[in-house]
Amino acid sequence: MQQLGGIDSLFLSMDSSRHPMHLASLMLVDPNSAPDGFSFDKVRQLYEARLHLVPPLRRRLVYVPGNLDHPYWIEDPDFDLEYHLRHRALPAPGSEKQLLELVCHLFARPLDRGRPLWEYYQIEGLEDGRVALLVKIHHACIDGVSGAEILANFLDLTPKMRKVRAAKEPWVPETPPNPLDLMSRTVGNYMTKPLRSLEILPRTMATAFNLSAMAFGSGIARPNAPFEAPPSIFNKSVTPHRAAAFPTLSLADAKAIKSAFGVTVNDVVMAICGTALRRYCLDKDALPEQPLLAIVPVSVRPDDDKAQPNNQISFMFCPLGTHLEDPVERLQAIKQGNDLGKAGQRMIGADLLQDWTQFTTPAVLARATQAISLLTTQQSLRPMFNVVISNVPGPRFPLYWAGARVESLHPIPVTIDGAGLNMTVVSYEDRMHFGLVADRGTVPDVEVIADYLTQAMADYVKLAAASGKAA
User: Fold this and answer.
1) In-domain check, residue 182
2) Mind spelling out the 3-state secondary structure of 257-294?
3) Residue 139 annotated as catalytic
4) Choosing from 22, 84, 139, 433, which is the catalytic residue?
5) Which pLDDT does position 137 carry in this prediction?
6) In a domain, 103, yes or no
7) Alpha-carbon distance 255 to 253, whole Å?
8) Which pLDDT belongs to residue 131?
9) How many domains are contained in the chain?
10) Which of the residues in the chain have pLDDT under 50?
11) Residues 301-340 pLDDT 10s
12) Among 1, 305, 398, 410, which has the highest number of CB atoms less than 10 A from its own CB?
């Protein structure tokens, strides 16, 4: 039995029927590339052979009575692999639009809290002969880095499926704990909280002092903070319905822009997102005078701890320069904002957010997130941020799923109240695969933003070439 961390518990408390807090990946594979054929049975065999490599897939939640402490994971005594593996087919002709509609429908469905929090869907019937693979897993189990590591256990570097070593010890399911035992553990945890608060508070005060000193010393330059975003068309209460688009851009183009303007690839990603959002808001006659503010998840996971299945993330806030007409000025402003955000992140430290969420009970976390959501969507407060943007580096070499070559790998992120658009990108081989997921009531035409991303990249490529500094 293992207790959830504070951030893991936070993602559980944010879960609702309108915005379930699971992540997903959509892979498109070529079944003809599998030397021994590709089938649902073969995928089942893949999971059966490698389940022991990924412990979270057989763990389910146990809650503390009264939600007075963070829940626990136990090895599910009723684990049933067949429940988690699903087989679907599109009606003819199996178009991309039909695939998007089905993916959005399947993604919006909450996961069963009484079972391990993941599902796999194999979707066949696409008109081009490819097969779509949708993998869902709750954010309480993983962050971007650990999610990629979990997925990697089922992927291979060649069409030939590698043989993995059997588990050293047989898997042993756990009997759910007695509620009295959970309450006893909770009492013990409560007895240590005053001591933990004495350790956290000085670090919190020191962090606030350092950030204030940074702002004072730099005049007007300081890291951005939540509740500084302008009201925007993206900051509404969300519905249970989603819209998605999955554009693909060239990683080589992003690197050429990076070299031409002395920025990072992440700066380029933020700039093309900011440019696309500026154009979209102009279309709607809804461009704020202040720049839109993005929240950017930041991994604080040590390099030697990538496989741990939990959340080790923090956040920084980055203005997207949407108030600037000149795209180069926008890119440079984003670079400055990202540099300040990184400096502030280093001052905050890797574990301060995790410590505070660990210290706070789930009941308090749930009420706090609900209150903030209500106040921001009713515009009693300024939004914490306008959009979520995340950039996850991926492998530069081809991958295979049950022998079939993975042609594309698109992330499907969450959307929450007050932030109806999430723009996440995963790089794979020489391409950047975007996952744009929006609340259908907030951004019903998310494909327009996808088109603007493509246009923004083309514009920056031209500007990089004109500068004469592109690699």
Assistant:
1) no
2) HHHHHCCCHHHHHHHHHHHHHHHHHHHCCCCCCCCCEE
3) yes
4) 139
5) 94
6) no
7) 5
8) 97
9) 1
10) 216-220, 347
11) 555 555 555 556 677 889 999 999 999 999 999 999 988 8
12) 410
